[in-house]
Amino acid sequence: MLARILCFNLFIVVTVRSIDYRLWNYEYPIFHSFDDIMSVLKEEGNHEKGLVLRILNTYYNICLFAPEPPVLNTKRRAFIVIEGNERARRELVGRVMAEKLGARFLLQPPKCFIDLIKEVKESSTRIRRAFYGLALYTTAFNVKQLWNLDTPVIVNGYWTEQTAFILGKRFSSETLPIPRDPVYEHPKDLLRPDLIYYLHYPLRSLTVNNWYQKPLNWDLYWRFKDPSPYIYSMGEVEHADEEYLSNHAWQCILNNPNITPPAVNF
């Protein structure tokens, strides 16, 4: 739509784009703390009080099913994130890696939120963004619970994916914030993964037209730091990628003095 307007009147485009970006900043917030999420839910509660209360009740009374476990100061198991531009295939890779590394594989959003998804999808954009942001803190809680059981964890999508999605909505490749911008910084109060893999599949292998296909998304992932994602262009050889990534993760774990390596050999 923007491209069509551009052909007719450049001055109007500049004016409209400025207004649109202000709207998108409001509609597509990027969360850098738990308090940011709560602030949006509090505001949206003025319009959709029932849904906001159900989200909060689910989070506090169902998702947080046990006391918050402390982050271990001793050696612990690994926390790995798998993201990419084709959800089904990256999920398959994640499950195979979890089996090879003896890890638990977790989906986003967590199971405790599943019953709310349909209602959330029909709500405002801001509630949807806050809901999926809150899901990340639930996932972090679940990872720490599994650490207490001496279990490594692989998660299908985390903060970097949600942030890349929002940045893709708010900016073009020419207007992206510079790589050192604070927008790319991981929230200080959200559990930080040890490894992030972004798996980029050839466009010809994709059958569904969605935002994951955008070249912008590939460019975005180079800008995230601490941890910096490992970005891989995926091939077509069945199971070769899973084997390679599992071996790479295992080697990274071996080189991290804070992580207990899995009881497997490659």
If you had to describe this structure to a student in words, what would you say it looks like?
The chain has helices at 2-8, 10-27, 34-44, 49-63, 87-101, 117-121, 125-148, 159-170, 215-221, 240-254, and strands at residues 79-84, 104-106, 153-156, 195-200, 230-233. By secondary structure, the chain is α/β, with parallel strands linked by helices. It has a single domain (2-25, 36-71, 79-254), classed as Rossmann fold. It has a 5-stranded parallel beta sheet, sandwiched between helices. Strand 4, helix 9 and strand 5 (230-233) form a beta-alpha-beta unit. Helix 3 (34-44) runs antiparallel to helix 7 (125-148) and helix 4 runs parallel beside helix 7 (125-148). The longest helix has 24 residues, at 125-148.
Q: Summarize the amount of helix as a percent range.
A: 40-55%
CATH class: Alpha Beta
Oligomer: single chain
Mean pLDDT metric: 83
Q: How many structural domains in the coordinates? A: 1
- Work out the radius of gyration: 20 Å
Reported CATH architecture = 3-Layer(aba) Sandwich
Structural class: alpha/beta
CATH overall fold name: Rossmann fold
Could you name the CATH homologous superfamily?
P-loop containing nucleotide triphosphate hydrolases
Low confidence ranges: 1-23
| Major beta-sheet overview | 5 strands, parallel
Q: Please provide the count of β strands.
A: 5
How would you describe the shape?
globular
Reading the helices and strands in chain order gives HHHHEHEHHEHEHEH
Strand order of the largest sheet: 2-3-1-4-5
Strand content: 5-15%
How many H/I helical runs? 10
